[in-house]
Amino acid sequence: MALERSTMLALLLISLGLLQTALAAEYVVGDATGWTYDETLKFYNDWAASKTLKVGDSLKFNWVSVHDVVEMSQADADACNSVGNKISEWQESGAVVDLTTAGTHSYICSIGSHCNAGMKMTVTVLAADTSTPASPPPPATPGVTAAPPPPPTAASSIQLRQPLIVGALALIAACAALSF
Ligand SMILES: [Cu+2]
């Protein structure tokens, strides 16, 4: 019985891990490039635009050499006004920035002229229960029978996540039932 209990515990931990994966994610800023200078000033905004960030997700900033991460207003960040109002700052590489509110958040490196060299980024964070807004249906062509609109792209991520959540909850329920 002890073996079964430990097996159940392992399953429970795995299912909780799946649940966590389905609900929140940590994104490494710049992926393998990390947080550094870049020759294209749009690099980090392009990176951010490629992600769907939600409340509960987090950003991880990895860097070498001397950098930092400072959250600023978007206006200060756009202007690289590193003496503007610092909303928050992180000094150590590996900094994990939790995204706790929806809306836009802007980050720069405040060291020297690094911001002007491309170390700035504005991300858009969606509410936790909001998926990517569906794109509007294509305009109907007059005189042509409109085909049904394609399903919104957001559906694929929802369909991916729901079985994970349901499976995790089923495993938790099974573990709870078996432990009595
Ligand atoms: Cu820097």
TrEMBL record:
UniProt xrefs under Pfam families: Cu_bind_like
InterPro entries, per the entry: BlueCu_1_BS, Cupredoxin, Phytocyanin-like, Phytocyanin_dom
SUPFAM superfamilies reported in the protein's UniProt record: Cupredoxins
Presence of the UniProt keyword Glycoprotein in the record: yes
Gene Ontology CC: plasma membrane
Bias-annotated ranges (Pro residues): 134-153
All copies of domain Phytocyanin, residue ranges: 25-127
Molecular function via GO: electron transfer activity; metal ion binding
Keywords: Copper, Disulfide bond, Glycoprotein, Metal-binding, Signal
Record region (Disordered): 129-155
Signal sequence bounds: 1-24
PANTHER family: BLUE COPPER PROTEIN (PTHR33021), UCLACYANIN 2 (PTHR33021:SF537)
Protein's recorded name: Phytocyanin domain-containing protein
Source organism per UniProt: Marchantia polymorpha subsp. ruderalis
Lineage start: Eukaryota, Viridiplantae, Streptophyta, Embryophyta, Marchantiophyta
